[in-house]
Amino acid sequence: MSLTISAYPIGTPGVAWGPAEVAAWRARQTRHRSYADDVLTAIERLRSRFDVSEYATLDYAPERFPLYAVRSRDWRDELPTMLVTGGVHGYETSGVHGALQFLEHDAACYAGRVNLLVVPCVSPWAYERIHRWNPDAIDPNRSFREPSPAQESTALLRLLAPQRDRVLMHIDLHETTDSDESEFRPALAARDGVAHEPGEIPDGFYLVDDTGNPQPAFQQAIIEAVAKVTHIAPADAKNEIIGSPVVAHGVIQYPLKKLGLCAGITNARYTTTTEVYPDSPRATPAQCNDAQVAAVCAAIDFALAHADIS
């Protein structure tokens, strides 16, 4: 769908932001929900069934946010490792709650078959403010490289460094929302001092495969599973989704590592980024969470079925 966009209220058109503009932007951000209540409480309930560890603390004085990873209790080195990340963009709600729902209701099905490593909320400051960026106006999902400008990305890079060559499958849970076009893309253009080019928001679920390591059968298995839960985004008139050519039903490709995207953080054989559309009149919050869970389960099932195929 197309949206009408007004000029962004911070900065001078054509001039990249400096510290004053970043500070003005940060001052506009309002806390809307509680990471402690929504996420940490849910993680606490998982301690009886999983190994839960604090892998870092984000220091945004006066606020501090502990970051948690949830692992299989029966971790064995000979088992394939499956990685699930959510909340890299804190405003993408079903990424966080889909990961937690998977742990609560579906992860037990894989006990003794895989090593599960789940990071439900990579960006808690942004989760609370329903925003894409961290307090420094940096997008963590363009910052998974060394050295990283984002605390969130640095913390996850360090957590996963020992597993970088051991992960078989990594699925990163995201959403594409109407606010991408009404707020976040205009803000990005203003921050970088460039013109905002209006785009379209796709109506439905889609996936982002890796240009450098395409796995079309893997992506299609996920699409088929999610289609039972919610609708798949069609291509636009240019046969694109968010400006990228559609390579298969509901699938586009990005160079994950080159762009510093979370799904490229390991050397996993199977990688994907989900994109749920929560603003569709045809989807409910529960459906969005269910779609994320369906994607995770389909991704693990496919990777397990093909684990011995090189």
Distance between the termini: 41 Å
Instruction: Give the strand content.
Output: 15-25%
Binned, the helix content reads 25-40%
* CATH architectural type: 3-Layer(aba) Sandwich
* CATH class category: Alpha Beta
Taken together, the total number of domains comes to: 1
- Which superfamily, in CATH terms, is the homologous superfamily? Zn peptidases
Question: Mean of residue pLDDT?
Answer: 95
- Classification by helices and strands: alpha/beta
Shape call: globular
Domain Peptidase M14: 31-310
Protein name: M14 family metallocarboxypeptidase
Cofactor: Zn(2+)
Keywords: Hydrolase, Metal-binding, Zinc
Structure, explained:
Belongs to the peptidase M14 family. Residues 31-310 form the Peptidase M14 domain. Pfam families: AstE_AspA_cat. It comes from Dyella ginsengisoli. This is M14 family metallocarboxypeptidase. With 310 residues, the chain is of the alpha/beta class. It has a single domain (25-305), classed as Aminopeptidase, CATH 3.40.630.10. The protein is 31% helix and 20% strand. The protein is built from 8 helices and 10 strands. The chain has helices at residues 19-27, 35-45, 93-105, 124-129, 151-160, 178-192, 216-226, 285-305, and strands at residues 50-60, 63-72, 81-86, 115-119, 167-175, 206-210, 240-241, 244-245, 251-254, 270-276. The strands form 2 sheets. Strands 1-2-4-3-5-10-6-9 form an 8-stranded mixed beta sheet, sandwiched between helices. Helix 3 links the parallel strand 3 (81-86) and strand 4. It is globular. 46% of the residues are buried. Mean pLDDT is 95; it is low at 1-5.
